[in-house]
């Protein structure tokens, strides 16, 4: 079904494009509805493809979920990077970065986030990306302190505070205690963090 173009580079290009399209569709489905309740038959029917096509993406539903979660966070990374202005102040970049993270995570339904939190392979992907994001914010805080833009706070403490809140957002603690979605929580974190350490 997928081999509409045959031979050499054109076939590989088509297969790669089709694979990317399927991952986009799969990821959008999971974001909207979660994944724990879906069988491979359900997924194939919703994507209008065969189960054998799904097996070209991953060898099992569990591997498919993990691969889709990785695909989602690659999209998030690209979206966030495009939203952070070059040459801006550290404060502006922190606000832009955390706000962009919030916007990029916003399509994830409560069910998707709950399913990620409950499924270790997907949760590990989220945790890894949260750690990378916290490290980046730490670097921006240090840069802002050195530039005199932020108060002479302990940058490591401010970064640890950020990382702690990012983990609480990721593991649904903030949603449960405040009712805020992940996207809203990241925007609030950006506002509170930068206001609190600004000179």
From TrEMBL:
Residues 16-76 form the HTH tetR-type domain. InterPro entries: Homeodomain-like_sf, HTH-type_TetR-like_transc_reg, HTH_TetR, Tet_transcr_reg_TetR-rel_C_sf. GO terms for molecular function: DNA-binding transcription factor activity; transcription cis-regulatory region binding. Residues 39-58 bind DNA. Keywords: DNA-binding, Transcription, Transcription regulation. Signal peptide: none annotated. Pfam families: TetR_N. The keyword Transport does not apply. PANTHER family: HTH-TYPE TRANSCRIPTIONAL REGULATOR BETI (PTHR30055:SF234), HTH-TYPE TRANSCRIPTIONAL REGULATOR RUTR (PTHR30055). This is TetR family transcriptional regulator. It comes from Rhodococcus rhodnii LMG 5362.
